[in-house]
Every structure is written in C-alpha cells, then in structure tokens.
Write a structure and sequence with these properties.
elongated
C-alpha cells in the first residue's frame, strides 16, 4: 500500500525504516492509546531519531493513516479469501462462527487497529478504505445468506448483513483486551445473537 513519500524515492533501507516505524507505532497505539503517543515516543520505540522519522512521515496522523489503511486492506483481503461454497454447507452456527473468527482473530493480532478506528482522526483516504472494509464484510455475508437461501431478496440479504456488522462492532470492544475466558464468552454470545437473528432469514420455507 502507498505510504507518505518524501521528495526523493525511497531506498530498500528506507522501506525497512518505514516498516520499523509502523511496527513501533502499532505497539504504542495498542499499549497506550492513540492520543498518548507522540512522534518522539514512536522514534524511540523504533530505535531511531525524530529527525529520521520525519524523513518518512510528517506527523503522527500520517503514521496512523498508513497503519489504518494497511489494516483495512489486509482484513478485507482475508474476508474475500473465505470459501463461501464450503461455509454454506456447514450448520449455520458453525458457518457464522467461522466468518466472525476472521475478524476477531485479525483484531486480536492487531490491537492497534481498533484504537485507530475509534480514536484517530483519519484522512479521507484512510476512511475510504475503512468504508470498503465494511462493504466487503457486508457483501461477503450477504452472498453467504443468498447462497444459503437463493430466494432471499438481495436487499434483504444486504440489510441482514448490515445488522450483523452492527452487532460485530458492538461486541468487538468486549472481545479486545479481555482475559481468555471472558473473551471466549463474549465471542460465543456475539455468535449466538447473530445466529438467532439469521435463522429465520435463511430458513427455507416449505
């Protein structure tokens, strides 16, 4: 994904610097929250000087934008890679759990993502990728629902998927940062809510 580029073209060493800065920023955003982190702290975490950081990013906002964009694109790609033809053959509860697991596991691996989405003032470009991520989730889930019940109207499938996205967003704060037992309970509760909502929607009427 494109990142902030200074006047001169980056070298391979420069790209390594960028990756190091982004990883350092992600660690700090996840640990301290967006607002408590400074560019000086990011530079120190990455083991470089603030002057080196400013060679690649003009400010903290640009770093947040790049991270949020990368996370959004990566998660969207994982969602699109799900094999719906296999999922549709599984019991509804198992299929829903598998679909939600993609998102939950991604957020567990990248705790800075939720911090950025909830705290950072992202640019129009980063917000656009966030919107496309939501569209990917809704589109994939709607396709799954219509595959499960071909007679389901497209508008109804999309609306149902939108409702599930709202449920997911509501539960994510309960999933992130929780102890294992609490996290498992939150995930199970989220999946149960979705299954109960979706069961009458995908039920094939006799």
């Amino acid at each position: 994904m494109p990142v902030f580029v200074p006047e001169r073209k980056r070298s391979s060493r420069g790209e390594l610097r960028v990756e190091g800065l982004l990883l350092a920023a992600a660690r700090l955003f996840a640990k301290l929250g967006y607002h408590a982190v400074t560019t000086n702290a990011i530079a120190a975490e990455a083991g470089v000087s603030p002057a080196t950081l400013y060679q690649f990013f003009p400010n903290k906002e640009a770093i947040a934008d790049e991270l949020a964009t990368r996370y959004s694109v990566a998660l969207a790609e994982e969602e699109k890679a799900a094999d719906l033809t296999l999922l549709v053959k599984r019991p509804l509860a198992e299929a829903v759990a598998a679909i939600m697991e993609i998102v939950v596991v991604f957020h567990q691996k990248h705790p800075a993502f939720r911090t950025l989405l909830t705290e950072a003032l992202l640019s129009e470009g980063a917000m656009g990728e966030k919107h496309r991520l939501s569209e990917t989730f809704v589109g994939q889930l709607a396709e799954f629902l219509t595959m499960r019940r071909p007679a389901l109207a497209k508008a109804d499938a999309l609306w149902s998927a939108e409702v599930c996205l709202t449920i997911l967003k509501g539960f994510l704060p309960q999933v992130a940062g929780r102890k294992t037992a609490e996290r498992t309970r939150a995930i199970e509760s989220m999946n149960q809510v979705m299954v109960r909502f979706l069961e009458p929607i995908v039920r094939v009427k006799g």
